[in-house]
Specification:
single chain; 438 residues; Gyrase A, domain 2; 8-stranded antiparallel sheet
Length: 438
Protein backbone atom coordinates (compact mmCIF):
# COMPACT_ATOMS: atom_id res chain seq x y z
CA UNK A 1 0.00 0.00 0.00
CA UNK A 2 2.80 2.41 0.86
CA UNK A 3 4.62 1.68 -2.41
CA UNK A 4 1.47 2.12 -4.49
CA UNK A 5 0.57 5.39 -2.75
CA UNK A 6 4.12 6.73 -3.23
CA UNK A 7 4.15 5.87 -6.95
CA UNK A 8 0.73 7.42 -7.52
CA UNK A 9 1.82 10.75 -5.99
CA UNK A 10 5.41 10.69 -7.28
CA UNK A 11 5.46 9.03 -10.72
CA UNK A 12 8.96 7.94 -11.71
CA UNK A 13 10.50 8.77 -8.31
CA UNK A 14 12.53 6.23 -6.35
CA UNK A 15 12.28 5.36 -2.68
CA UNK A 16 16.00 4.73 -2.11
CA UNK A 17 17.07 8.40 -1.61
CA UNK A 18 14.62 8.72 1.29
CA UNK A 19 15.90 5.67 3.19
CA UNK A 20 19.51 5.12 2.12
CA UNK A 21 21.06 8.05 4.02
CA UNK A 22 20.27 6.66 7.48
CA UNK A 23 20.57 2.99 6.50
CA UNK A 24 23.69 2.91 4.34
CA UNK A 25 24.79 -0.40 5.78
CA UNK A 26 21.60 -2.05 4.49
CA UNK A 27 20.44 0.14 1.61
CA UNK A 28 22.34 1.99 -1.10
CA UNK A 29 21.25 5.02 -3.06
CA UNK A 30 20.80 2.76 -6.10
CA UNK A 31 18.56 0.21 -4.36
CA UNK A 32 15.38 -0.70 -6.21
CA UNK A 33 11.93 0.09 -4.87
CA UNK A 34 11.38 -3.62 -4.26
CA UNK A 35 14.50 -3.78 -2.07
CA UNK A 36 13.40 -0.71 -0.11
CA UNK A 37 9.90 -2.11 0.43
CA UNK A 38 11.35 -5.43 1.58
CA UNK A 39 13.57 -3.54 4.02
CA UNK A 40 10.59 -1.55 5.36
CA UNK A 41 8.58 -4.76 5.71
CA UNK A 42 11.43 -6.47 7.59
CA UNK A 43 11.79 -3.48 9.92
CA UNK A 44 8.04 -3.44 10.58
CA UNK A 45 8.03 -7.16 11.39
CA UNK A 46 11.05 -6.76 13.66
CA UNK A 47 9.41 -3.82 15.43
CA UNK A 48 6.22 -5.80 15.91
CA UNK A 49 8.10 -8.78 17.34
CA UNK A 50 10.10 -6.52 19.67
CA UNK A 51 6.93 -4.76 20.84
CA UNK A 52 5.28 -8.12 21.53
CA UNK A 53 8.26 -9.35 23.54
CA UNK A 54 8.52 -6.16 25.61
CA UNK A 55 4.78 -6.14 26.32
CA UNK A 56 4.97 -9.81 27.33
CA UNK A 57 7.75 -9.04 29.82
CA UNK A 58 5.77 -6.10 31.21
CA UNK A 59 2.56 -8.10 31.58
CA UNK A 60 4.39 -10.92 33.35
CA UNK A 61 5.24 -8.38 36.07
CA UNK A 62 1.84 -6.66 36.20
CA UNK A 63 0.51 -8.78 39.05
CA UNK A 64 -2.64 -10.40 37.65
CA UNK A 65 -3.38 -14.11 37.50
CA UNK A 66 -2.98 -15.90 34.17
CA UNK A 67 -2.50 -12.97 31.77
CA UNK A 68 -2.89 -13.80 28.10
CA UNK A 69 -1.09 -12.08 25.21
CA UNK A 70 -1.11 -13.16 21.57
CA UNK A 71 0.28 -11.75 18.31
CA UNK A 72 -1.47 -11.78 14.93
CA UNK A 73 1.39 -11.08 12.51
CA UNK A 74 -0.90 -10.87 9.47
CA UNK A 75 -3.00 -8.07 10.95
CA UNK A 76 -0.24 -6.51 13.06
CA UNK A 77 -2.42 -6.73 16.17
CA UNK A 78 -1.42 -7.74 19.69
CA UNK A 79 -4.29 -8.98 21.87
CA UNK A 80 -3.92 -8.66 25.64
CA UNK A 81 -6.28 -10.16 28.24
CA UNK A 82 -5.79 -9.26 31.90
CA UNK A 83 -8.20 -11.08 34.19
CA UNK A 84 -8.67 -9.31 37.51
CA UNK A 85 -7.33 -5.88 36.46
CA UNK A 86 -9.50 -3.25 38.17
CA UNK A 87 -7.98 0.02 36.90
CA UNK A 88 -8.35 0.41 33.09
CA UNK A 89 -6.47 3.74 33.03
CA UNK A 90 -3.49 2.19 34.78
CA UNK A 91 -3.48 -0.66 32.24
CA UNK A 92 -3.53 1.81 29.34
CA UNK A 93 -0.54 3.73 30.72
CA UNK A 94 1.29 0.48 31.42
CA UNK A 95 0.84 -0.86 27.89
CA UNK A 96 1.29 2.33 25.84
CA UNK A 97 4.37 3.80 27.52
CA UNK A 98 7.35 3.60 25.16
CA UNK A 99 9.70 3.76 28.19
CA UNK A 100 12.08 6.17 26.44
CA UNK A 101 14.18 7.12 29.48
CA UNK A 102 16.66 10.00 29.14
CA UNK A 103 18.90 12.05 31.43
CA UNK A 104 19.28 15.73 30.53
CA UNK A 105 21.07 18.78 31.87
CA UNK A 106 18.66 21.64 32.63
CA UNK A 107 18.47 25.40 32.36
CA UNK A 108 17.35 27.26 35.49
CA UNK A 109 15.83 30.70 36.02
CA UNK A 110 19.38 32.00 36.43
CA UNK A 111 20.03 31.03 32.81
CA UNK A 112 16.68 31.93 31.26
CA UNK A 113 15.26 34.61 33.56
CA UNK A 114 16.14 37.48 31.24
CA UNK A 115 15.03 35.44 28.25
CA UNK A 116 11.63 34.83 29.87
CA UNK A 117 11.18 38.55 30.49
CA UNK A 118 12.16 39.37 26.91
CA UNK A 119 9.84 36.63 25.64
CA UNK A 120 6.94 38.08 27.63
CA UNK A 121 7.57 41.54 26.17
CA UNK A 122 7.96 40.14 22.66
CA UNK A 123 4.74 38.17 23.01
CA UNK A 124 2.91 41.26 24.25
CA UNK A 125 4.12 43.20 21.21
CA UNK A 126 3.33 40.31 18.89
CA UNK A 127 -0.22 39.84 20.12
CA UNK A 128 -1.29 43.47 20.55
CA UNK A 129 0.79 45.54 18.11
CA UNK A 130 -1.18 46.76 15.11
CA UNK A 131 1.95 46.73 12.97
CA UNK A 132 2.99 43.10 13.41
CA UNK A 133 3.87 41.23 10.22
CA UNK A 134 1.26 38.88 8.81
CA UNK A 135 3.62 36.02 7.96
CA UNK A 136 2.80 32.32 8.17
CA UNK A 137 3.75 32.14 11.83
CA UNK A 138 1.49 35.06 12.76
CA UNK A 139 -1.45 33.56 10.89
CA UNK A 140 -0.97 30.37 12.89
CA UNK A 141 -1.32 32.45 16.06
CA UNK A 142 -4.44 34.38 15.01
CA UNK A 143 -6.54 32.18 17.25
CA UNK A 144 -4.28 33.08 20.17
CA UNK A 145 -4.69 36.78 19.47
CA UNK A 146 -8.46 36.45 19.34
CA UNK A 147 -8.50 34.68 22.70
CA UNK A 148 -6.21 37.20 24.40
CA UNK A 149 -7.22 40.62 23.08
CA UNK A 150 -8.60 41.50 26.50
CA UNK A 151 -5.78 39.98 28.50
CA UNK A 152 -3.70 43.14 28.81
CA UNK A 153 0.04 43.12 29.46
CA UNK A 154 2.30 40.22 30.46
CA UNK A 155 0.47 37.59 28.40
CA UNK A 156 3.08 34.89 29.12
CA UNK A 157 3.47 35.53 32.84
CA UNK A 158 -0.31 35.71 33.17
CA UNK A 159 -0.51 31.95 32.65
CA UNK A 160 3.07 30.88 33.47
CA UNK A 161 4.26 31.66 36.98
CA UNK A 162 8.08 32.04 36.82
CA UNK A 163 10.16 30.08 39.34
CA UNK A 164 11.81 33.05 41.04
CA UNK A 165 14.84 31.97 43.14
CA UNK A 166 14.61 31.92 46.93
CA UNK A 167 17.26 33.55 49.12
CA UNK A 168 18.70 31.75 52.13
CA UNK A 169 18.40 34.23 55.06
CA UNK A 170 21.48 32.79 56.77
CA UNK A 171 23.93 32.62 53.88
CA UNK A 172 22.35 35.20 51.58
CA UNK A 173 22.74 32.81 48.64
CA UNK A 174 19.96 32.24 46.16
CA UNK A 175 18.53 28.80 45.44
CA UNK A 176 17.40 28.24 41.87
CA UNK A 177 14.75 25.61 41.22
CA UNK A 178 15.41 23.02 38.49
CA UNK A 179 12.24 24.19 36.71
CA UNK A 180 11.65 27.63 35.21
CA UNK A 181 7.95 28.04 35.93
CA UNK A 182 4.61 26.43 36.68
CA UNK A 183 1.14 26.63 35.17
CA UNK A 184 -2.33 25.20 35.61
CA UNK A 185 -3.02 22.11 33.51
CA UNK A 186 -5.72 23.98 31.62
CA UNK A 187 -3.16 26.60 30.51
CA UNK A 188 -0.36 24.24 29.41
CA UNK A 189 -1.61 23.99 25.82
CA UNK A 190 -1.60 27.78 25.48
CA UNK A 191 1.88 28.01 27.03
CA UNK A 192 3.09 25.46 24.47
CA UNK A 193 1.60 27.52 21.65
CA UNK A 194 3.28 30.68 22.90
CA UNK A 195 6.69 29.02 23.29
CA UNK A 196 6.55 27.71 19.71
CA UNK A 197 6.07 31.18 18.22
CA UNK A 198 9.27 32.48 16.55
CA UNK A 199 8.90 35.84 18.32
CA UNK A 200 9.08 34.02 21.65
CA UNK A 201 11.39 31.16 20.74
CA UNK A 202 14.17 33.47 19.57
CA UNK A 203 14.69 34.70 23.14
CA UNK A 204 15.96 31.30 24.34
CA UNK A 205 19.06 29.25 23.49
CA UNK A 206 18.73 27.18 20.33
CA UNK A 207 19.26 23.94 22.25
CA UNK A 208 16.58 24.67 24.87
CA UNK A 209 13.64 22.27 24.83
CA UNK A 210 10.64 22.78 27.10
CA UNK A 211 9.10 19.77 28.87
CA UNK A 212 6.40 19.49 31.52
CA UNK A 213 6.80 17.57 34.76
CA UNK A 214 4.62 14.65 35.77
CA UNK A 215 1.33 15.19 37.54
CA UNK A 216 1.91 14.63 41.26
CA UNK A 217 -0.58 13.69 43.97
CA UNK A 218 -1.31 15.40 47.27
CA UNK A 219 -1.62 13.60 50.61
CA UNK A 220 -5.28 12.79 49.94
CA UNK A 221 -4.44 11.07 46.66
CA UNK A 222 -5.85 13.81 44.42
CA UNK A 223 -3.90 14.74 41.31
CA UNK A 224 -2.33 18.19 41.33
CA UNK A 225 -3.80 20.72 38.90
CA UNK A 226 -0.43 22.47 38.46
CA UNK A 227 2.48 21.28 36.31
CA UNK A 228 6.12 22.37 36.43
CA UNK A 229 7.84 23.56 33.25
CA UNK A 230 11.45 22.49 32.68
CA UNK A 231 13.96 23.64 30.07
CA UNK A 232 16.39 20.87 29.16
CA UNK A 233 19.67 21.27 27.27
CA UNK A 234 19.58 19.20 24.10
CA UNK A 235 22.80 18.19 22.37
CA UNK A 236 23.33 19.97 19.01
CA UNK A 237 23.53 17.50 16.14
CA UNK A 238 22.29 14.58 18.25
CA UNK A 239 18.72 13.36 18.65
CA UNK A 240 19.21 11.45 21.89
CA UNK A 241 20.50 12.34 25.32
CA UNK A 242 23.99 11.77 26.68
CA UNK A 243 22.56 8.97 28.84
CA UNK A 244 19.51 6.92 27.84
CA UNK A 245 17.42 4.02 29.08
CA UNK A 246 19.61 1.37 27.45
CA UNK A 247 22.06 2.00 30.28
CA UNK A 248 19.56 0.80 32.90
CA UNK A 249 20.29 -2.76 33.99
CA UNK A 250 17.77 -3.08 36.80
CA UNK A 251 15.04 -1.04 38.50
CA UNK A 252 13.00 -1.52 41.66
CA UNK A 253 10.50 0.35 43.83
CA UNK A 254 11.77 1.34 47.28
CA UNK A 255 10.94 3.56 50.27
CA UNK A 256 13.21 6.28 51.60
CA UNK A 257 13.26 5.58 55.34
CA UNK A 258 14.19 9.17 56.18
CA UNK A 259 11.80 11.18 54.00
CA UNK A 260 9.07 8.50 53.56
CA UNK A 261 9.18 9.13 49.82
CA UNK A 262 8.48 6.42 47.27
CA UNK A 263 11.39 6.01 44.84
CA UNK A 264 12.32 3.99 41.79
CA UNK A 265 15.95 2.97 42.22
CA UNK A 266 17.95 2.21 39.08
CA UNK A 267 21.21 0.32 38.59
CA UNK A 268 23.20 0.96 35.42
CA UNK A 269 25.49 -1.07 33.21
CA UNK A 270 29.25 -0.52 33.37
CA UNK A 271 29.14 1.76 30.34
CA UNK A 272 26.16 3.66 31.71
CA UNK A 273 27.84 4.02 35.12
CA UNK A 274 30.88 5.65 33.53
CA UNK A 275 28.69 8.10 31.58
CA UNK A 276 26.64 8.86 34.72
CA UNK A 277 29.79 9.52 36.75
CA UNK A 278 31.12 11.87 34.09
CA UNK A 279 27.75 13.61 33.78
CA UNK A 280 27.29 14.14 37.53
CA UNK A 281 30.87 15.37 37.95
CA UNK A 282 30.26 18.00 35.27
CA UNK A 283 27.00 19.12 36.93
CA UNK A 284 27.98 19.50 40.60
CA UNK A 285 25.49 21.73 42.46
CA UNK A 286 23.22 21.60 39.42
CA UNK A 287 20.20 19.50 38.53
CA UNK A 288 19.81 16.66 36.05
CA UNK A 289 16.33 15.94 34.70
CA UNK A 290 15.20 12.31 34.52
CA UNK A 291 12.74 12.21 31.61
CA UNK A 292 10.44 9.37 30.57
CA UNK A 293 8.52 9.73 27.30
CA UNK A 294 9.07 13.52 27.30
CA UNK A 295 7.71 13.91 30.85
CA UNK A 296 10.10 15.03 33.60
CA UNK A 297 9.67 12.63 36.52
CA UNK A 298 12.42 14.03 38.71
CA UNK A 299 15.23 16.60 38.60
CA UNK A 300 17.53 15.89 41.57
CA UNK A 301 20.31 18.26 42.54
CA UNK A 302 23.80 16.79 42.14
CA UNK A 303 25.91 17.34 45.26
CA UNK A 304 28.93 15.37 44.08
CA UNK A 305 29.81 12.95 41.32
CA UNK A 306 28.02 9.59 41.59
CA UNK A 307 30.09 6.47 41.07
CA UNK A 308 28.74 2.95 40.73
CA UNK A 309 25.90 3.75 38.36
CA UNK A 310 23.08 4.23 40.87
CA UNK A 311 20.28 6.77 40.52
CA UNK A 312 16.66 7.13 41.55
CA UNK A 313 13.40 8.75 40.53
CA UNK A 314 11.30 10.32 43.29
CA UNK A 315 7.64 9.43 42.73
CA UNK A 316 6.09 11.28 45.67
CA UNK A 317 5.25 11.08 49.34
CA UNK A 318 4.61 7.66 50.87
CA UNK A 319 2.37 8.98 53.63
CA UNK A 320 -1.34 9.64 53.77
CA UNK A 321 -4.16 8.33 51.61
CA UNK A 322 -2.13 8.41 48.41
CA UNK A 323 0.46 5.83 49.51
CA UNK A 324 -1.00 2.88 47.60
CA UNK A 325 -1.48 4.94 44.42
CA UNK A 326 2.10 6.24 44.48
CA UNK A 327 3.47 2.77 45.20
CA UNK A 328 1.54 1.30 42.25
CA UNK A 329 2.86 4.04 39.94
CA UNK A 330 6.42 3.37 41.16
CA UNK A 331 6.05 -0.39 40.71
CA UNK A 332 4.67 0.06 37.19
CA UNK A 333 7.51 2.40 36.26
CA UNK A 334 10.14 0.00 37.64
CA UNK A 335 8.62 -2.90 35.69
CA UNK A 336 8.46 -0.82 32.50
CA UNK A 337 12.13 0.16 32.82
CA UNK A 338 13.18 -3.44 33.49
CA UNK A 339 11.22 -4.72 30.48
CA UNK A 340 12.91 -2.21 28.16
CA UNK A 341 11.65 0.50 25.82
CA UNK A 342 9.43 0.08 22.79
CA UNK A 343 11.08 0.95 19.48
CA UNK A 344 7.59 1.26 17.98
CA UNK A 345 4.85 2.83 20.12
CA UNK A 346 1.89 0.60 21.00
CA UNK A 347 -1.50 2.21 20.44
CA UNK A 348 -4.73 0.73 21.77
CA UNK A 349 -7.08 0.48 18.76
CA UNK A 350 -9.86 -1.39 20.57
CA UNK A 351 -10.57 -2.24 24.18
CA UNK A 352 -13.32 -4.02 26.07
CA UNK A 353 -13.79 -4.03 29.81
CA UNK A 354 -15.80 -6.98 31.13
CA UNK A 355 -17.16 -5.84 34.47
CA UNK A 356 -17.66 -8.05 37.53
CA UNK A 357 -21.42 -8.36 36.88
CA UNK A 358 -21.02 -9.72 33.34
CA UNK A 359 -18.14 -11.95 34.43
CA UNK A 360 -20.13 -13.30 37.38
CA UNK A 361 -23.10 -14.07 35.12
CA UNK A 362 -20.86 -16.02 32.75
CA UNK A 363 -19.32 -18.00 35.61
CA UNK A 364 -22.73 -18.74 37.17
CA UNK A 365 -24.10 -19.93 33.83
CA UNK A 366 -21.07 -22.15 33.34
CA UNK A 367 -21.37 -23.62 36.83
CA UNK A 368 -25.07 -24.34 36.28
CA UNK A 369 -24.37 -26.18 33.02
CA UNK A 370 -21.57 -28.07 34.74
CA UNK A 371 -23.82 -29.22 37.62
CA UNK A 372 -26.62 -30.28 35.26
CA UNK A 373 -24.25 -32.32 33.08
CA UNK A 374 -22.64 -33.86 36.16
CA UNK A 375 -26.00 -34.93 37.66
CA UNK A 376 -27.26 -36.35 34.34
CA UNK A 377 -24.11 -38.45 33.92
CA UNK A 378 -24.26 -39.50 37.59
CA UNK A 379 -27.87 -40.75 37.33
CA UNK A 380 -27.42 -42.48 33.96
CA UNK A 381 -24.38 -44.42 35.21
CA UNK A 382 -26.38 -45.78 38.18
CA UNK A 383 -29.44 -46.66 36.06
CA UNK A 384 -27.45 -48.35 33.29
CA UNK A 385 -24.65 -50.10 35.23
CA UNK A 386 -26.12 -50.47 38.75
CA UNK A 387 -23.34 -51.27 41.28
CA UNK A 388 -20.57 -50.72 38.72
CA UNK A 389 -22.10 -47.34 37.98
CA UNK A 390 -21.88 -46.36 41.65
CA UNK A 391 -18.17 -47.28 41.67
CA UNK A 392 -17.65 -45.23 38.51
CA UNK A 393 -19.43 -42.26 40.09
CA UNK A 394 -17.19 -42.44 43.16
CA UNK A 395 -14.15 -42.41 40.86
CA UNK A 396 -15.73 -39.49 38.99
CA UNK A 397 -16.14 -37.47 42.21
CA UNK A 398 -12.54 -38.19 43.27
CA UNK A 399 -11.32 -37.13 39.81
CA UNK A 400 -13.22 -33.85 40.11
CA UNK A 401 -11.98 -33.18 43.65
CA UNK A 402 -8.35 -33.81 42.68
CA UNK A 403 -8.66 -31.54 39.63
CA UNK A 404 -10.27 -28.66 41.54
CA UNK A 405 -7.83 -29.07 44.44
CA UNK A 406 -4.79 -28.85 42.17
CA UNK A 407 -6.21 -25.78 40.37
CA UNK A 408 -6.89 -24.09 43.73
CA UNK A 409 -3.36 -24.81 44.93
CA UNK A 410 -2.02 -23.18 41.75
CA UNK A 411 -4.30 -20.11 42.28
CA UNK A 412 -5.80 -20.65 38.84
CA UNK A 413 -8.52 -18.26 37.63
CA UNK A 414 -11.93 -19.87 36.97
CA UNK A 415 -13.17 -18.81 33.52
CA UNK A 416 -15.94 -19.98 31.21
CA UNK A 417 -13.36 -21.86 29.16
CA UNK A 418 -12.06 -23.51 32.33
CA UNK A 419 -15.55 -24.71 33.27
CA UNK A 420 -15.96 -26.17 29.77
CA UNK A 421 -12.67 -27.99 30.31
CA UNK A 422 -13.98 -29.52 33.54
CA UNK A 423 -17.11 -30.76 31.73
CA UNK A 424 -14.92 -32.28 29.02
CA UNK A 425 -12.75 -33.96 31.67
CA UNK A 426 -15.81 -35.58 33.27
CA UNK A 427 -17.01 -36.79 29.88
CA UNK A 428 -13.64 -38.38 29.10
CA UNK A 429 -13.57 -40.09 32.51
CA UNK A 430 -17.06 -41.51 31.91
CA UNK A 431 -16.03 -42.75 28.46
CA UNK A 432 -13.15 -44.66 30.06
CA UNK A 433 -15.48 -46.38 32.53
CA UNK A 434 -18.02 -47.21 29.81
CA UNK A 435 -15.33 -48.85 27.68
CA UNK A 436 -14.18 -50.95 30.65
CA UNK A 437 -17.73 -52.02 31.56
CA UNK A 438 -18.69 -52.92 27.99
Amino acid sequence: LFGAAFNSQNPGAKLAPFFANTNRNKLTINASDAQVLNYIRDQANAGMAQTFEVLRRRIDKFGVAQPNISLDENKGIITVELAGATDPERVRRFLQSTANLQFWEVYTFADLGQGLQNADKALDTYLFSSTKLQDSASRAADSLKTADTSAGSNPLFRILNPAVPQQNPETGKYYFYPYIGLARIGDTAKVNEYLRLPAVKNNFPANAKFLWGKQDRDETGKLSQVLLLYAIKTIPGKEGAELEGEAIENASQEFDQITNEVNVTMAMTNSGARTWERMTEKNKNKSIAIVLDDIVYSAPNVIDKISGGNSRITMGSGTGANTQLVVEEAQDLANILKAGKLDAPAKIVQEQVVGPTLGQEAVQGGLLSFLISFLVIFVLMIIYYNTAGIVANIALILNLLFTVGILSAMHATLTAAGIAGLVLTIGMAVDTNVIIFE
